[in-house]
Design brief:
- 55% of the residues lie in helices and 7% in strands.
- It has 1024 residues and is an alpha/beta fold.
- The strands form three sheets. An eight-stranded parallel beta barrel has the order 8-9-10-11-12-13-14-15, surrounded by seven helices. A five-stranded parallel β-sheet has the order 2-3-4-1-5, with helices on both faces. Strands 6-7 form a two-stranded antiparallel ribbon.
- Strand 11, helix 47 and strand 12 form a beta-alpha-beta unit.
- Helix 14 packs parallel to helix 15.
- The radius of gyration is 33 Å and the shape is globular.
- The termini are far apart.
Length: 1024
């Protein structure tokens, strides 16, 4: 029998006080503020809020424990069987439900194009979505929106860099902990195990990356996770604050798996930008109250600033009315902050010092300031009660934080700017700004602080900024460019200051300072008539490296008189200089005919005329009578290289003219011109509104007897167009030349890599044609296509080729080089090596020269499951080398190192289209810059090859590999006559792929020789 205890009100009160005392004692032991506990004790708090905050507290406290104690805790909870997707979704749902809703009248509106990109990302093969944007453009809001609105398509985790101790964080552990999964003995292996059971994408959002150092830590660990966890269901969405931009090439798997939206195909990243002016007008007028001025009444400067969502939100919250003058970002923030504080019945003169001190403790301080005045020992001032939803808030861990990083940076910049003002014209002031500018070049947060400092000092002490801009000790690579980037609308950037800085940029050859100056609108007037000489000096000094900045400056600031003055001062007899003006002719000529333009069209240097052809493809060139007259002359130019340059632009001409020109070029006396014309038609897919040009071209080719003698390397381009457009004339090329399957193979491969999205009718025709093909390579590709269409996540799928190859880094792989001359012997050795387990079979250059490109296909047919490397040792025609190798079955293409950047870039583009990684042979005299440039171009690995003619006098490849491997995280292959007796080579940690040739290929028992080398290589893998 139970008895209900009747508590008196006094007893209830005493019991609650005892509970609160115990809670506060516990919180005090953990280091949490009393205000945090008071927040927990509120009767209005929901269960979801408390659940989320409890998990936050436990997560932080567990992070302080040793690995063995965390593992014991996990085992006691028996959470090892949790589901990664379901656990992530559950916690994210709770987190989204407990997020503080800002009281701003500005309703959140997601960028539709970016949301669509993320939807595409979830269905595509890429595993990393890189979202960039400046402070306040809505990156965090967007990730919250995506996690909620796309929860029917994927599970999300919301991780934030600011919650981590980056020196000790293990992201694999954080992912598991988020889903309440035990880390196990090895967090990476545990994550791999749980990721394999995912039934749909699980997207790990890592928000708040604001510097190169933070991205380096995150990038390295994400790269390691992608290397270990191969299932495409585990994905990452990284938000990165810019400027400055981050580089991803140092993280091979991350870079290889970047999702590339159509509009950002080259960079593989999406950037949130400020709203267009009209959108900002609409958002402001929809959200403003009756006491707030309409958008049209705001000064132009404020209209520009509130295009960034965070500034509009603050301005609306502060009920900003029409200002008496334009405000820079600092002045706008200052006005908004003071208005918001005053509206909360708090004296701004008391609150602002406390908030400034809070920002000082949470932000970066230069050494000249942080080491002075004993500031770190000064007792903290309490932050007065403010409008917590607007300026600061106290999250569960008890630390008072600003509601947006822009606010913290505003108060921090106030503190630093005032210290610099105190220093005056001194070495300390310049040193402080130099240090800040250097840090700002790698940190978006510090960059924002520096910009605000410059704006505050411009109001208080413009003469001090003049001094910093002109004193010789100011850095021309960081500090002075940062000042010039803020020159427009400033007080310090007087004409004489700008002229002095421009002269210094020219004399000291600082491309960073030149770029900053060219972005300024006030420089044009300051330079006066001297602008012509200055621009030509930059053009001659920096060449193509500064073309885009120079043309941008001309477009923004030049009138017709300026353009003609610059053109008249140029040396048109100088080929490089004339190429620039010909390439950008549309900037310098009015609609009337010009003698100079006629000089370009008749210039003796073919590169000038080819540049003119390239310029016509620019979208800013109007399609008018004059332009078509230029096209007509270039189409009939005497030099085939110029005709080849204009050919790709023909499809964009008016229909009648385009048909006329393509007829001319497809009948050209040079097959290269004809081929370029075909490539120009490749962009006109089956659904393109101008696909009729393709049908016209096919008709021309079918009726031209010369095309019956079409060179073999051009034939696939012709047949590819026939296949994709399902033309009635599709039998023309096959009738004339037969069908060797290369075009069909190319279409199948492009479909598998995602380069082509075929309509169902075309897809069906392609499949039927492939089934009837006599080419075993086509049938082999068709089988892979069928597996992929059935949802099989085949590790050999060409979509994953780059990712798969880059995983060779840090492992031990063996590549057997068939540097032979007899194809039958090569096939026999290849079979033996494949049976022994060789990772790669290389078709050597001697075999390709002896037998021809068909050697690749014959070896691939003999060992279809092996990864075949084609040694295409050519320094030119990179694209064609890759296409030829891929069409005959190569899985990897090795190119010679001294190739030009343009050639390697074209090869990489073809490799990505056809799912073929590019391995690049490294020149003897290489440099770290060259390696970095090749990484940026997109190669997937490097080789160090020993010249056999040097014999015993040659430097060992392992010595060079050590240096090369320190410069790159891509796989490094070494070749140097290695055999099973080279013990030092197998224990050496400085290679990822060991290339072995004669010791296996010339062995009397290749299988045994290969087996022994593979055994040694794999047994020493731990040394790498």
């Amino acid at each position: 029998m139970s008895h209900e205890i009747a508590w008196t009100p006094r007893e209830v009160k005493a019991l609650r006080e005892a509970q609160h005392l115990s809670q506060r004692a516990f919180a005090n032991r953990l280091g949490y503020a009393h205000s945090t506990v008071a927040n927990w004790e509120k009767t209005t708090r929901s269960t979801a809020d408390l659940h989320h905050e409890t998990r936050e507290v436990l997560g932080r406290e567990l992070g302080r424990l040793s690995d063995d104690l965390r593992e014991r805790f996990d085992r006691l909870l028996n959470v090892a069987s949790s589901n990664l997707g379901a656990g992530s979704a559950s916690r994210t749902s709770t987190l989204l439900g407990s997020l503080h809703v800002n009281d701003s009248p500005l309703r959140y509106s997601p960028p539709v194009d970016v949301v669509d990109d993320v939807r595409t990302f979830l269905a595509a093969s890429g595993r990393v979505f890189l979202l960039r944007g400046a402070a306040g453009t809505g990156k965090s809001h967007l990730t919250h929106y995506l996690s909620h609105s796309l929860s029917d398509q994927a599970d999300f985790q919301l991780l934030t860099v600011s919650n981590w101790d980056l020196a000790a964080v293990d992201i694999a552990v954080e992912i598991l902990r988020y889903a309440a999964i035990s880390r196990g003995h090895d967090a990476l292996l545990t994550l791999e195990q749980h990721a394999q059971s995912l039934s749909r994408p699980c997207v790990v959002v890592i928000d708040g990356i604001s510097s190169h150092d933070e991205f380096a830590i995150v990038g390295r660990q994400v790269d390691a996770i992608l290397r270990q966890v191969t299932t495409s269901s585990l994905r990452f969405l990284l938000t990165v604050r810019t400027p400055p931009a981050v580089e991803t090439t140092a993280y091979p798997l991350l870079h290889a798996t970047l999702f590339k939206p159509a509009e950002q195909a080259r960079s593989g990243r999406t950037e949130l930008m400020p709203w267009p002016l009209e959108k900002a007008r609409r958002r402001w007028d929809e959200a403003r109250g009756a006491d707030v001025s309409p958008f049209g009444c705001l000064p132009a400067g404020i209209q520009h600033l509130v295009r960034t969502p965070v500034y509009m939100r603050l301005a609306l919250t502060a009920s900003l009315e029409t200002a008496e003058r334009d405000l820079n970002a600092y002045a706008l923030l200052d006005r908004c902050v003071r208005t918001i504080i005053s509206s909360g019945n708090t004296d701004p003169e008391l609150a602002i010092p406390a908030l400034t001190e809070l920002a000082r403790k949470q932000g970066y301080l230069p050494s000249t300031i942080s080491s002075s005045n004993g500031l770190e020992n000064r007792p903290s001032s309490p932050v007065p009660p403010l409008l917590a939803s607007t300026l600061v808030h106290g999250p569960p861990h008890g630390r008072v934080e600003f509601t947006h990083e822009v606010l913290r940076e505003f108060f921090l910049s106030t503190y630093i700017a005032d210290k610099v003002y105190e220093y005056g014209r001194s070495v300390v002031a310049v040193t402080t700004l130099n240090e800040l500018a250097a840090r700002a070049s790698t940190s978006g947060s510090v960059r924002s602080v520096l910009d605000l400092i410059i704006q505050r000092l411009d109001d208080r002490a413009p003469d001090l900024l003049e001094y910093v801009a002109t004193v010789p000790t100011s850095s021309v690579s960081t500090t002075v460019p940062a000042l010039m980037a803020m020159a427009d609308g400033s007080r310090f950037a007087r004409p004489e200051v700008l002229r002095g800085v421009a002269k210094r940029a020219e004399q000291e050859r600082s491309i960073e300072l030149c770029r900053a100056l060219l972005s300024s609108a006030v420089l044009h007037k300051a330079l006066g008539l001297g602008r012509t000489r200055w621009l030509l000096a930059l053009l001659r000094e920096f060449g193509t490296n500064l073309w885009s900045e120079i043309t941008g400056f001309i477009e923004r600031t030049f009138d017709a008189g300026d353009a003609y003055s610059l053109l008249d001062a140029a040396d048109s007899s100088d080929g490089d200089e004339a190429v620039f003006f010909a390439r950008h002719f549309y900037l310098f000529f009015s609609e009337t005919t010009s003698e100079t333009l006629a000089a370009f069209i008749g210039h003796p240097n073919w590169r000038v005329r080819a540049a003119l052809a390239s310029g016509i493809s620019d979208e800013r060139v109007p399609v008018d009578t004059r332009t078509m007259d230029l096209v007509d002359q270039l189409v009939h130019d005497a030099d085939y290289k110029v005709r080849a340059a204009i050919a790709p632009t023909v499809p964009s001409a008016p229909a009648a003219a385009a048909k006329r020109y393509l007829t001319t070029l497809l009948a050209d006396e040079n097959w290269y011109v004809r081929e370029r014309m075909l490539r120009g038609l490749e962009s006109l897919g089956p659904g393109h509104p101008r696909r009729g040009l393709v049908h016209a071209a096919l008709e021309v080719m079918s009726n031209d007897p010369a095309w019956r003698r079409c060179p073999r390397h051009i034939l696939p381009s012709w047949q590819r167009l026939e296949i994709l457009h399902n033309s009635e004339l599709a039998v023309a090329s096959t009738t004339a030349h037969g069908d060797d399957g290369r075009a069909l193979l190319t279409v199948l491969r492009e479909s598998r890599t995602g380069y082509l999205a075929l309509p169902q009718s075309i897809q069906r025709t392609v499949m039927e044609r492939a089934q009837r093909s006599d080419s075993w390579l086509v049938r082999h590709e068709l089988a892979g296509t069928a597996d992929y269409s059935q949802g099989a996540e085949d590790d050999r799928n060409p979509r994953l080729s780059r990712e798969r190859f880059r995983r060779a880094r840090g492992h031990r792989a063996v590549q057997i080089a068939l540097d032979m001359r007899d194809i039958d012997d090569a096939i026999a050795v290849a079979r033996s090596c494949a049976q022994a387990g060789a990772d790669y079979i290389e078709i050597g250059d001697p075999l390709i020269k002896e037998v021809g490109i068909s050697a690749i296909e014959q070896v691939k047919a003999a060992v279809p499951t092996a990864s075949v490397v084609a040694e295409m040792m050519s320094a030119d025609w990179g694209r064609d080398q890759v296409v030829l190798a891929a069409q005959t079955g190569a899985d990897v293409v090795l190119l010679i190192g001294p190739a030009t950047t343009a050639s390697v870039s074209a090869a990489v583009e073809a490799g990505q289209r056809l799912g073929v990684p590019i391995l690049l042979d490294t020149p003897v005299t290489t440099s770290q810059r060259w390696v970095t440039d090749m990484e940026r171009v997109g190669v997937d690995g490097f080789t160090i090859t020993t010249n056999i003619d040097l014999g015993i006098g040659n430097t060992t490849a392992l010595d060079a590999a050590r240096t090369l491997r320190s410069w790159t995280q891509l796989p490094v292959a070494v070749s140097g006559g290695f055999s099973a007796t080279d013990d030092s080579a197998f224990t050496n940690p400085d290679w990822d792929i060991l290339i072995v040739g004669r010791s296996v290929a010339d062995a009397t028992d290749p299988a045994s020789a290969a087996s022994r080398i593979l055994e040694l290589a794999h047994s020493t893998e731990r040394h790498s």
